[in-house]
Structure formats: C-alpha cells, structure tokens
Amino acid sequence: MSERIQVIICAIIIAVIAIWLPFYQAETSSLLDQYDYYAQVIWQEPWRFFTAHIFHLDTTHAVTNAIALVIVTVFFAHHYTVRTWFNAVIVIMVICTTVVWLLGTPERFVGLSALIHGLLLTSLLLEWSQQNYARTDWLSPLVIGLLVLKVLLEMMGAMHSAILLSAGSDYGYIHLAGLAGGIIAWRLHRKRLASLTA
C-alpha cells in the first residue's frame, strides 16, 4: 500500500471518530465538558490539547469538518508520510491550543477547523516550496492569501459561519491559532529530531 493511501486512511479514521463522537456525546451528557478546550484547566488536564480538536458541537459541525479534513489530506497527501502527517497534526493541535490560551479567547472551543486551517497552510507551503517559491507559481500564494484574508475577516466579524453560530464570534482567533500551528508544522516538516536539538 502506498504511503499516500496510508496518509488518507489516517485522515479517514480521524474523520470517522469525529463523526461518531457526537452520537456518543448524546448518551453521555458531560463528555464534552471533560474533553473540550477549557482555558482554566488546560494545564491540569493536558489531554484537552488533543481532544478539543476531535470533539464537535453537533453532528453537522463534525461532518463538515471531517469532510474538509479528508479533502485537504487527499489533495496534499503526496507531501507526507504517515509519520510526517501525524507530526504535523500533533504540532498544529498543540500550537493552536497554546496560542488560543495565550490570546485568552475563547474560553472554550471544540472542532477540527483549526487543525484543517493549519494543515491546509502547511500543505500549501509545501506545495509552493516544491516549486522553489517560483513567482510563476501563483496558485499556492493566492490560496494562502485568501486563507489569511478569510481568517482576518472572521476575526473582524465581517465573515460568519452558519455552522458555528452557537460558537460565538471567537472562531476567527481559533483559526488564526491553527494557521500559526501550520507555519510551525511547515518549518518542522521532515526535520530529524536530532537536527532540532543541535
């Protein structure tokens, strides 16, 4: 089985888990309170750095994000091995959660969307780097610019999501934190751990 297919399967597994969890949450009412990002307890309960990104507000939120995760992965899986894809996912989750904590807003969140924003940015930067950042390759920089513009508009309140109406207007900050994680994941992509400590 090719590495690309293995990466896509990993994304599908995470997507299936994310879609299944809202049904499980319906049976266990306090489940979301134990696994969402909650600023006051994030350092005492570090599993929330990861679980906050897998849980969702409802099934629509979960399905939309799951589909987006799989689409981004399908388009850009050729840039990753299973290890580098999971490294990117973990780095984006941790950096995103840390940036949200540093910003102080929102107090609570759940969802894959920050991870998707970060993974998309990482993948676009990898795609562009494959072209040696050529000025003739306009598609990757254009999409990166539109992605950043979208997040800025969300932060200013000029762009709203029908799916996230119940989440308030802070999701722009969450997506910004995902982009920050994406930049760091891109910089760390394929670096050996030994070279990071030298």
UniProtKB/TrEMBL annotation:
An individual GO BP term: proteolysis
Transmembrane spans: 7-24, 59-77, 84-103, 109-126, 138-159, 171-188
UniProt GO MF annotations: serine-type endopeptidase activity
Record-linked InterPro entries: Peptidase_S54_rhomboid_dom, Rhomboid-like_sf
GO cellular component, one term: membrane
Domain of life from the UniProt record: Bacteria
Topology term for the membrane: Multi-pass membrane protein
Compartmental location: Membrane
Limits of the Peptidase S54 rhomboid domain: 45-185
Keywords (A to Z) from UniProt: Hydrolase, Membrane, Protease, Transmembrane, Transmembrane helix
Protein name as annotated: Rhomboid family GlyGly-CTERM serine protease
Organism field: Pseudidiomarina maritima
